[in-house]
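Methods, example record. To illustrate the input and output format used throughout this study, we show the complete record for 4-diphosphocytidyl-2-C-methyl-D-erythritol kinase. The sequence lines were provided to the predictor; the line carrying structure tokens was produced by it.
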Amino acid sequence: MPETLKVFAPAKINLGLSVLGLRSDGYHDISSVMLPLSVGDELEVRPAPELTLKVLGADLPTDSRNLVYRAAELYFRAAGVKGGAQLTLHKVLPLASGLGGGSSDAASTLLALAQLYPAGVNLHTLAQQLGADVPFFLLGGAALAEGIGERLTPLDAPPSWLVLLNPGVAVSARDAYVWLDETGAYTPPLDAPALLGALAAGQMVPYFNALQDAVVVRHSPIAAALSALTQIGLHSLLMSGSGSTVFGLARSEAQARAAATNLQAQFPNWWARAAQIRSGLAV
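The corresponding predicted structure is encoded as:
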């Protein structure tokens, strides 16, 4: 058993997000192509007598209010493990940003503990108890998410480059869906093959985000971030998830890295990163 296990917790983007409607249970049916990225948080896990969590890089709770801590509690309970772990979360991704950071951190916790304390536990079942996006991050690749996000169909995605830009505002996913419900502007399912085909060909990707208009009108910095991506020469701009991160596709790694550097210099209080889609088929 390694003394310390280090696990990468990737960010994700939504290559289009359709909200089909509101369900009777209060959740929403969605259709979204979800892609893991080369940027993310890092989790260190060390076997220990008790469960503890330390967070570096962000002011977050370190008890059961934190999804990482809850994921660990859930795993130990399901596995019947007596003992614990010393968890250290290095936060790189901005909070409440539409990049799935908390969900990815939770999934990475499950994966790490399953490696340190093997017990034949069904991680997908545990992930569903932690949040709609958590099961996706167990896959390790792109997927079409349907239902409330729990029905996942693995996809093959090209390793394209893009730029992420977060203007420093936090957006509640709950609020974003409430605002959409107020308008009733629900949307049809995405055409995943068409989106991935355009991405592979380097063309404008015909996607949309059903949440974007209602969020942007209430958070003007997001509109400014979209404008900044346009002005620097990126294409196929979109807000990821419920925001506030937006992204634009680049023609090459060099363009993505140069754009991210320029944007960070232009907006020093924002968060800008070049990122690559982690290619390959989810398993």
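Annotations derived from this record:
The CA atoms of residues 35 and 142 lie 5 Å apart.
The two ends are 25 Å apart (CA to CA).
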